[in-house]
Amino acid sequence: MKKISADASISGNASPVTVPFTAYLAAKGFLEDLLAELGDEVIEVRGRLVLAKGAPRSAAWAQNTWETPVFLPIESIGDGARKLTAIQRNWHLHSEENHRRASLIQEKLPHVSEKPRHFGEAAPTAPLGSWTLWEPNLILASARCSSPFPDGVVQFHENKIDPPSRAYLKLWESFTLLPKRPGPGDLCLDLGSAPGGWTWVLASLGSKHMGNARLPAHRIHRRRRTQAHRHPAELASAFRGKPSPGLPHPGETPPRLRKAASFRRSRAHGPARLMDTVGAQPHPRFGPVLVAVPRRRGAVP
Asked: Where does residue 159 rank: exposed (0-12), middle (13-18), buried (19+ CB within 10 A)?
C-alpha cells in the first residue's frame, strides 16, 4: 500500500521527500486508524511505515515514532553500514522492501540484543535508532525514536503457569515503560477484574488491591477451563472475606453461587481446578457484583 502526495518526488539517490517530515510505525492491525489520525499530513505509506509532514507529534495508533528521519544515499552494502555507524552504534532494522539487501547491511552493524526481558528489568537507556532500506541505494534512518525497544514492542519471558489470562502482559509493558508502578502500601482498585490477569500482577507487586467483576463465576471459569493456571496464595488471601469499598459486607457466599463457582474438571481435561467466590453481593446500582479468584490445588476452602 503506497500513498504519494505532491510533496514526494521519487528518484534513485535524491531524498524522496522535500518537506520536513516524521515517520510513524503503525501498531499491527491499526494502520487505517493511524492514517485517519494523521489525516491530510500523510505523504507516503509503505507497509506499516507512514511518512507525514511536520514535526513529531503524539499519535495514539503509532507503535513507534521516528523523530529525526533522514535519507542516506549509499553506494554499497558496506557503505550503508558505515554511514549508519557514523551516526551512532545501535540500530534496529524495520524491513518493508529490499529485504535481503537490508539484512546484509544489518549484519555489518554492531549487534544489539533483542532477547525477551524479565519483568522488573529497567527499560534500556542507550538510544536505539530505526532504519529501513527505502530503495536499493537509499536508506531511511532515524537516530532518535519514541521507544527504546525495537519497533516499540516489549518482549517478555512469559509466565505460562500462574496468571489466569495473558492480560497481565499489558500491565507488565505499562509498568516497564512508565516511570512509576504500584508497590507495597499502594492501594489499587481493579474494576472488571475477571479473569484476574491484572489483579495477579498487582498482587505480585505487593500492593493492596481490590477487584470486582460482574461476570458470573461459572462463565469466568468456562473461559479458562482449557488451561490449568494457578494463582499465588497471597492473591486469594488478599481477597477472601474483604468487601469492596463502599459496598455492603458480603457475609456468607450464597450456596448457589458457591456451587456455580466450583467446578471440577474431568480427567480428560487435566487436574481439577476450583474457583473461590469472595465478595458476591447485591448492589443497588450495579446489580450482583462478584469477585472470583482461582483456588490453588490442595488449598482449604
From this structure: middle
